[in-house]
Amino acid sequence: MHVNLDLKVLYFGTPVVLIGTRNADGSANLAPMSSAWWLKQSCMIGMGNRSKTTENLLRERECVLNLASADMAAAVDRLAPLTGTFPVPQAKAAKGYRYEADKFGAAGLTPQASELVGAPRVAECPIQLECVVDAVHTFAETASAVEVRVVRAHVEERLVIPGTDHVDPVGWDPLIMKFCEFFGRGEYVHPSRLAEAWRMPHQGLTPTG
Ligand SMILES: Cc1cc2nc3c(=O)[nH]c(=O)nc-3n(C[C@H](O)[C@H](O)[C@H](O)COP(=O)(O)O)c2cc1C
User: Which residue range or ranges hold the Flavin reductase like domain (predicted)?
Assistant: First the structure.
């Protein structure tokens, strides 16, 4: 039996991407996002227009999509309440966001220079995709769907199927954001400040492992 719901959130479960962009002063910004889908060598990323990331994408026309693995949930969660925008937009401040200039330091992650773009890679991410922006579309009134194309892919050696240009799907364990909560291998792995900020009604979840 099905019931009709006025569903508040449609984030059914998508991989977490740490998107690296370059600020106007040349410094690095890093933000977690999970509205990303892939076709051929391109990716469509959905970002709110008030984020520093969107501002940087529109100006610099490039980014790095760093794919987070499930064991990076704590670092991703440390980034969750932060923005590179100063002053913090009112709607974000009301949700508890604060400004942070050094996102890498705050997350405990290591910036790594890219080869073709000015945006930073995240050394801890096993898959890092350097991208250029091909097009920007208005989306859901206050957001942008940014169409990017991968121009260089970096994959940790242990995840490569030997002798091929393919990732081993068994070895790769993506961090999944499901209804604002963190999952890996189908299991709840870490409490989520995003779920807290959104006042999600999830109760009594206990991380496994
Ligand atoms: C797991 C996770 C997934 C997120 N996914 C998105 C997303 O797909 N699109 C988006 O606009 N914001 C998303 N956010 C919120 C942004 O990370 C947040 O707006 C952040 O402040 C952006 O940083 P910036 O302003 O420095 O770019 C997500 C946050 C978390 C923790």
Answer: 9-167
CA of 181 to the centre of ligand 1 (A): 13
Does ligand 1 have an atom closer than 6 angstroms to the CB of 56? Answer: no
Q: Specify whether domain 14-197 bears CATH 2.40.160.20.
A: no
**Average pLDDT of 88-117?**
97
Predicted local distance difference test score (pLDDT) of residue 202: 84
98-99 and 82-83 strand pairing: parallel
Domain coordinates in residue numbering, the chain: 14-197
The whole-number pLDDT of residue 40 equals 98
Mean pLDDT over all residues of the chain?
97
Q: Which two tokens stand for residue 185?
A: 């291998």
Q: Is 51 in the pocket of ligand 1 (CB under 6 A)?
A: yes
Answer whether 194 contacts ligand 1 (Cβ < 6 A): yes
pLDDT digits (tens, 9 = 90+) for 152-202: 999 999 999 999 999 999 999 999 999 999 999 999 999 999 999 999 998
Q: Which residues, 6 or more positions from 36, have their beta carbon under 8 angstroms from its beta carbon? A: 14, 15, 17, 43, 44, 45, 46, 65
Nearest-CA residue for ligand 1 atom 9 is 47
